[in-house]
Amino acid sequence: MAAEREPPPLGDGKPTDFEDLEDGEDLFTSTVSTLESSPSSPEPASLPAEDISANSNGPKPTEVVLDDDREDLFAEATEEVSLDSPEREPILSSEPSPAVTPVTPTTLIAPRIESKSMSAPVIFDRSREEIEEEANGDIFDIEIGVSDPEKVGDGMNAYMAYRVTTKTSLSMFSKSEFSVKRRFSDFLGLHSKLASKYLHVGYIVPPAPEKSIVGMTKVKVGKEDSSSTEFVEKRRAALERYLQRTVKHPTLLQDPDLRQFLESSELPRAVNTQALSGAGILRMANKAADAVNKMTIKMNESDAWFEEKQQQFENLDQQLRKLHVSVEALVCHRKELSANTAAFAKSAAMLGNSEDHTALSRALSQLAEVEEKIDQLHQEHAFADFYMFSELLSDYIRLIAAVKGVFDHRMKCWQKWEDAQITLLKKREAEAKMMVANKPDKIQQAKNEIREWEAKVQQGERDFEQISKTIRKEVGRFEKERVKDFKTVIIKYLESLVQTQQQLIKYWEAFLPEAKAIA
Amino acid sequence: MMEGLDDGPDFLSEEDRGLKAINVNLQSDAALQVDISDALSERDKVKFTVHTKSSLPNFKQNEFSVVRQHEEFIWLHDSFVENEDYAGYIIPPAPPRPDFDASREKLQKLGEGEGSMTKEEFTKMKQELEAEYLAIFKKTVAMHEVFLCRVAAHPILRRDLNFHVFLEYNQDLSVRGKNKKEKLEDFFKNMVKSADGVIVSGVKDVDDFFEHERTFLLEYHNRVKDASAKSDRMTRSHKSAADDYNRIGSSLYALGTQDSTDICKFFLKVSELFDKTRKIEARVSADEDLKLSDLLKYYLRESQAAKDLLYRRSRSLVDYENANKALDKARAKNKDVLQAETSQQLCCQKFEKISESAKQELIDFKTRRVAAFRKNLVELAELELKHAKGNLQLLQNCLAVLNGDT
């Protein structure tokens, strides 16, 4: 197919490289990075590719595109672009300026300018935003449900299996409705894979529900009491929300791991998610190292937007935590109220029994019944308080932690770039010294190293710009989602409160004539 | 801190109605009308202004007021209890001691924690605690008033001399609270009484009416005690939940003012909703407390008083029977017959007198109880409905605004 097309207006036509790349996957991978490094390509078709960062099992070109129309265009585009190395790492090209310009045959794209002008990306972002909006409005027609928790196995090896049902009209899935059985560690495994792929390039990957050793142990041991059923229900709801958030993310939705998770009937067991595994310990070590690094990085923030946003998220985090504490207290008190109401109802019934005036006795019994019903109402109310309000808040507290993590990655990226620049400087100095000392072989080596590090510097800069761009977009999307989420959930919560009050009215209205009938 | 009763008219009227209603059959006759027109709360005592309107000749004036403290009410109550002549009546239960300790402690804690919360939160909580204090204050006033009204309504007790002194004597009655020794004596007296009560209750009564009443009262008293405790706990949980609304409202407000997106209006509206809902929930809790908890508490005390009456009657019955036995013995020995006879006659009279009045008292007790429960349960249901409807209205309004915005 490639042969049929006009060679793209590349600065330096590299037909040779072109032929090298037979492997569609690699082509694509490289494509991505080149696309990313050309900020001045507003062509919509290139967008979908941008979303998929240059790593992991490079998704097949055809599957990348959201819009069917653009599919072909894009597919062709990818195959045409000649690229340097088919590695997964950010491409290290040996040329000073990877001529990555033209991607699409339709538009003439100006060669990439060295200057780090952020204006182009901004336009870029905006058009991307528009496309994103279109895509969003374009119905993310996918619905995920997590249901039917069932205990598999016995004793300490037992686990809960959940049914994950997907209903979708998206073409990337083979069926329109399907379900699989997954266990909790599978979810954690999915998150871990997605996080390792997307977090460090600036995507806000929704965090998975937390582990709970205590809760699970109770379930494993087989305690069939209300607290373990509550625990399972809480976890089921959390897993559902987690998946729904993940699929709402346009980039993550494209990820093959996610698709595999949703579709394939057998999934390799994710042992790396166990806390005490080798991977788990490594994770903890990394976290500690990260924390230390964060303190030592002094970033030169050139963009006030980031600083502002970070502060905002910090504030939001604090406020949400405070609110969450209050809501949890409310849930607790309402549960207490429910228990006390039930106790009172029993007591009132007893009192009604011993009362020897018949009408009063009957009224007291009625009162007892009303109070019992109200107790049920309180329980439901507590349920609503918790599942809607409180869990929403705790989800967002964890999400904001993920957002903060993404900002941290940007800092690390900047650090890497800075380090590369410093090293380059050193290499140049070394070269200069060699020149003076006149050692030809060493000079050559120095020159090579300089070239290498110049490339690294450029890559670092590209990465930094890319992550900044991605973060801006992600934060915009996050904020929109957040607003929508909060509004929807709170309205739902208030509506449930309306129900409660209406029921209350019904109960008391039924009781009133009984009370009046006491003669 | 809190002076006067006439702060929140709304508050006052409901509560006044509420507690007075416990004794619905109070004849508001011109002969004797008693009420507490004012009250002052000082450091650790409350001074009640007892106001009397009477056309009875016993009093020097037709209308007069005196200032009394809690101890003087207790003195009056005890004087009734100790008076043999009143053995056959249900003595109106004494009002409980005014207890502001909990409330005062909370206010103190609030003052200490002032630095750790925002200004709005602090003002809100302060208002809340002040309202609580006021509520407790009004309750204690009402309970003292109910006691006096009960006495004034009782055909026999209202003529008691001590009562008149209490009402009229406009100087300090020099009634001090019981000192340690007296309290210890009381404690022993009670122990003896309850032991005696057990013995006496073993005596089967010939009279069906009293037998029935005894079993009934015993069971009823216990169950009312239980119901009263549970109702208390329920009301308190309700109040805690309402308090949480306060904090949630504040947090939402903070979120609303700090957020940069268009969700801030949303948060502010919801915060407002929580504030308003909280007020309603607090009222629900207060009304439940008043109509249910207080009702049960009062009848706990009244049923105890009725039990005491029965005890006294049984006691006099035992005395009567003992006097009979003594008379028989005396007649057999033919020694001190006259003495035995007189004593037997006295016992007989006492017993019969008590029985007669006790019967009437117990019947009245039932009537009063039924009426009080009816009134309070009806009012409780009506208030709950009113508040639920109010809540519903608030929620629906808020939802309309929120849905309109989005």
Q: What structural keywords apply?
A:
heterodimer; A: 519 residues; mainly alpha; PX Domain; three-stranded antiparallel beta sheet; elongated; disordered N terminus; B: 406 residues; Substrate Binding Domain Of Dnak, Chain:A, Domain 2; 2 domains; 6% strand; AH/BAR_dom_sf (chain B); transport (chain B); SNX5/SNX6/SNX32 (chain B)
Q: How many strands in all of chain B?
A: 3
Mean pLDDT of chain A: 73
Distance N to C terminus of chain A = 96 Å
How many extended strands of chain A?
Answer: 3
Q: What is the CATH homology-level superfamily of the domain at 138-276 in chain A?
A: Phox-like domain
The CATH architecture classification of the domain at 138-276 in chain A is 2-Layer Sandwich
Identify the CATH architecture of the largest domain in chain B: Up-down Bundle
Fraction of residues in H or I helices of chain B: over 70%
Mean pLDDT of chain B: 82
Helical proportion of chain A, percent range: 55-70%
Estimate the global geometry of chain B from the Cα principal axes. Answer: elongated
Structural class of chain A: mainly alpha
* Helix count, DSSP H or I runs of 4 or more residues of chain A: 15
Radius of gyration of chain B using CA atoms only: 27 Å
Q: Sketch the topology of chain A as an H/E string, one letter per element.
A: HHHHHHEEEHHHHHHHHH
**Shape of chain A from CA axes?**
elongated
Domain PX (chain A): 140-269
Pfam family, one (chain A): PX
Keywords (chain A): Acetylation, Cell projection, Coiled coil, Endosome, Lipid-binding, Membrane, Phosphoprotein, Protein transport, Transport
GO molecular function (chain A): epidermal growth factor receptor binding; insulin receptor binding; leptin receptor binding; phosphatidylinositol binding; transferrin receptor binding
Descriptive account of the structure:
The complex is a heterodimer of chains A (519) and B (406). Chain A has helices at residues 15-20, 24-36, 47-51, 61-64, 68-80, 119-137, 184-198, 213-221, 226-248, 250-253, 256-263, 278-296, 304-354, 358-437, 440-516; strands at residues 142-152, 159-168, 177-183. Chain A has 519 residues and is mainly alpha-helical. Chain A has a domain at 138-276: Phox-like domain (PX Domain, 2-Layer Sandwich). Chain A has a three-stranded antiparallel β-sheet with strand order 1-2-3. In chain A, helix 8 (213-221) packs across helix 9 (226-248) and helix 13 packs antiparallel against helix 14 (358-437). Chain A is elongated. Chain A starts with 14 loop residues before the first helix and ends with a helix. Chain B has 406 residues and is mainly alpha-helical. Chain B folds into two domains: 21-171, Phox-like domain (PX Domain); 217-405, Up-down Bundle (Substrate Binding Domain Of Dnak, Chain:A, Domain 2). Chain B has nine helices and three strands; from the N terminus they run αβββαααααααα. Chains A and B meet through helix 13, helix 14 and helix 15 of A and helix 7, helix 8 and helix 9 of B. Chain A: It is found in: Cell projection, Lamellipodium; Early endosome membrane. Chain A: Residues 140-269 form the PX domain. Chain A: This is Sorting nexin-2. Chain A: It holds the Pfam family PX.
